[in-house]
Design goal:
The chain has 2 domains: about 35 residues, 3-Layer(aba) Sandwich (YefM-like fold); about 50 residues, no CATH class. It has 4 helices and 3 strands, in the order βααββαα. Strands 1-2-3 form a 3-stranded mixed sheet. It is elongated.
């Protein structure tokens, strides 16, 4: 816990705010007496519920897996060729000639 005077809090508010955001309690005093405790706000119940729901949806998505069975990984050549074809079609505004 950090203790600062009202004057220090006024002059160095950004630094004190960062300390509080990091989880440190900051007590602000006036004439030597504590008047304010600055602490970070925790997440609301609504935010916590939303995160939990999104986490559960993501887990369920991964539990289901990909439909149609396992997917064959692409080779390096296939990946580069797909990218090359796309760049070719964007540059020349016509389909890539597949005459190989």
């Amino acid at each position: 816990m950090t203790t600062v005077t009202a004057r220090e809090a006024n002059q160095h508010f950004a630094r004190i705010l960062k300390q509080a955001e990091a989880g440190e309690e900051v007590v602000i005093t006036r004439r030597g007496k504590p008047v304010v405790k600055l602490v970070a706000v925790g997440e609301t119940e609504e935010e916590a519920a939303k995160k939990a729901r999104e986490r559960e949806e993501a887990l369920e998505f991964f539990r289901k897996g990909i439909k149609g069975g396992p997917v064959k990984p692409w080779t390096r050549e296939e990946l580069y060729m797909e990218r090359f074809k796309k760049l070719y079609e964007e540059r020349f505004e016509r389909p890539y000639p597949d005459d190989r």
